[in-house]
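anyone seen this seq b4? input:
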Amino acid sequence: IGCQTITWGDGQNAFMDRLCQVAAQAGYEALEIGFRRLCQTPVEQMRDLLAANGLRLVASHIGGNLEDVAQADSERTMLDAVLDTVTALGAKYVMFSGLRYQNDSQFAADLAMLNRCARKAVDRGVRLLYHNHNWEFAGSPRAMDLLMERRAPELGFCPDVGWVAKAGQDVMAFLKGVAADTPLVHFKDFASLDPGVDTVCLGDGVVPLADVATWIRSGGNCVEWVIAEQDRADIPADEATTRNAQYLRRLFA
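predicted toks r here
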């Protein structure tokens, strides 16, 4: 099981040592860190912190135009910088989110960019995965439908089951539809299916997480990691992430 460090918010580099200690003590085996936070800690320091706490970096998370050199503030693209960092830390996955349908030409260009980046990542030993929110399931045509139809085989999925439920979709049906290309699953729980980011600790909300765990344990899929991701918490982040680890450990014991 892994932990997305989003629950601790911004400024994580200032207390990354304590964050790693809390995650390890809670029983996580790995971290997923958003790249805009990960890049604030030097690679050597991050490698030492992970090793000292018996953790690994399983993935990082990015968005935007990965081929835009302006985002990387250099002649290299953002994807180059991300791949350099995650490969140096031994991670095999990078998540991308943010694909929206506005018009045919915009979507075609964005998806072509993602497909090129997915192929480039594979050449570096990294799999680019698409991480959904709820908006990909809205509108007509739906961005998720077009993504599933037109993606390159190198581009996989990291389903966020909380957002799938929030979009009013059948969580299990969606998971089964992408099972062959889903090595990571984000476990997120919401207090309700109403609009808004009302995340709660795993098991306290309305998302069918136990059903998801049963499906993963039953086989017939390629899931390697389950990752707790709680965007916001009304209790201290240390406590929330510890409770989420306890929940996942019970489900996957």
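The mean pLDDT is 96. The chain is about 40% helix and 15% strand. kinda curious what u guys think
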